[in-house]
Amino acid sequence: MELQFDARPPDSTGLDVVVTSVASDAHTWNLVYLQLLLEELGHRVTNLGACVPDQLMIDECRGRRPDLIVVSTVNGHGFVDGKRVVRLLRGCPELHTTPLVIGGKLGITGGEHCGGVRELIEAGFDGVFEESAGIVGFRDFVQSLPSGVTR
Fold first, then answer.
1. How far apart are CA 98 and CA 75, in angstroms?
2. Residue 112 CB coordination number (10 Å)
3. What DSSP character marks residue 33?
4. How buried is residue 136: exposed, middle or buried, by Cβ count under 10 Å (0-12/13-18/19+)?
5. Which of 14, 73, 111, 119 is most deeply buried (CB count within 10 A of its CB)?
6. Among 44, 41, 58, which Cα is nearest to 6's?
């Protein structure tokens, strides 16, 4: 059986996406996976990497003005860290309406209760995608966004 990778090169009709982790998370495989997925869908991706300090995340997003910000974390502290960074990002007038999602392992027990998801949405995220089961919903969310959504 031959594996085929049907990737489209990023083009001008795709979204400008920032993929990032939070300051406490040193994992990178999740970020690379998301970058490859988004690029396969035809989007341009800036991957800020692991252990991104809050201020660096804010500065990069303010400077780049992306169409989508994706926060990914697998260390189990995404719920706490996510609530902190969403307040900071939403506090920037130029990012106030930018679509912003979080996903991965958001708590130390995995498969968090729906109250946590609701709390993250109420805090300002447009989407919350938990662990590997959330990838289908994430992909659908991204594909529903029009190009140049924040411009």
1. 25
2. 20
3. H
4. exposed
5. 73
6. 41
Measured CA to CA, the distance from residue 49 to residue 58 in angstroms comes to 14
Q: What is the pTM of this model?
A: 0.86
Q: Are 100 and 69 a contacting pair, CB within 8 Å?
A: yes
CB 126 within 8 A of CB 90: no
Residues 6 or more apart whose CB falls under 8 angstroms from that of 10 comprise: 39, 42, 43, 44, 45
SS3 6: coil
Taken as a whole, the chain contains a residue count of 151
pLDDT tens sequence across 96-130:
999 999 998 888 765 555 568 899 999 999 999 98
